[in-house]
Amino acid sequence: MIKSGIDKIIKQAGGLQKISPELYALSENYKSIQKAFSPCIESIQRIQSLISPKIQQYALAQQRFIQAFSSPYIEIINRNKKVLNELIMPLSLISKAMQPYINMVEKIQSNYSYIEELSKTISRFIEIERIDSMLLNDYWLIFDRDLINEIKDNLDNEAFNINKFIVRKYSYNKFEKIKELLDDIKQSECINEERIPIIESCYTVMKQCSAKNACNAIIPTLTAQLEGILKEIIEIIPKDSFNKIIEEYDLKKESTVLITLHYLEDEIRNSFRTIQKFEIVIKDKAFGRVEKEDKKYRKSRHSILHGSCHYGCKENIVRAWLELAFLVKIKFEIMSCQERMLQEIAEKSQIDSL
Predict the structure, then answer these.
(1) Dihedral sign, Cα of residue 233, residue 234, residue 239, residue 240
(2) 55-72 pLDDT, tens per residue?
(3) Which secondary-structure segment (H or E) carries 159?
């Protein structure tokens, strides 16, 4: 009714073309498109009417096929359910039993980076221990890890001479690294103040005199300081520990170096490498009454102080400073350990009194 009314108005007005030429053009364009696509739409509708029944037939046939195919197997499964359960149950148990192993593998995989890093750390430790053994073989008491790493980096070089390398490092820039050792010794809380001016004078002479004169003058002085510090170490060993070691190892009271060695091993529990250094360098070389000296070392206390060997060389002056620093380190470790022991005893007594 509304459409017929609109058509009547448009007709009386002279047609759509007169009312709105733009709207008329759009309408005519739509009619031409509709006319052009009309055959296509009719073809699609005819094809759809032909295919639709076929699709329905296929769906019904597919359903009948699935039912026909699966029915026998469902019956077989139902008849043999017990047997199948017996087959499946062990698989379930195996899976359950394997779970801890699976968890372990997953844990290993998740911690692979940690294991890899641990392996690298162990390899580095073994390499450093190997170098430490080489150093100890030539009586070098070196604790400087940076220097040890430098030695490690040069070991593959056939021309590398470990003794010359160490002497060159400690002699560089007017014995700069020796000055570092001296500063550490001075700052230590366990060195007697009376020794500091003597040790400082050794360093001053070493810088000002020729290498030969410095070595001949300083090594006996440092050796005397070594003996004095060793005596101090022996004096701080508790009397009951001292007597216990004498009795246990059947030693004489005069065997003070051996007593100190056993005290470090039994009560202070120093590392194996520290004890080995003390034993080889201090007991056998610096303070041992050695008649036939090692040509690579030639630095026994007895021979130096009684002038019966040619000890004056740069190698031995560096060794003397390293030995001095080593003994100060040993004394500091003993005093620190004793302090911890006393603190533990005091804490235990306080707890017992509660």
Answers:
(1) positive
(2) 666 666 666 656 655 566
(3) none
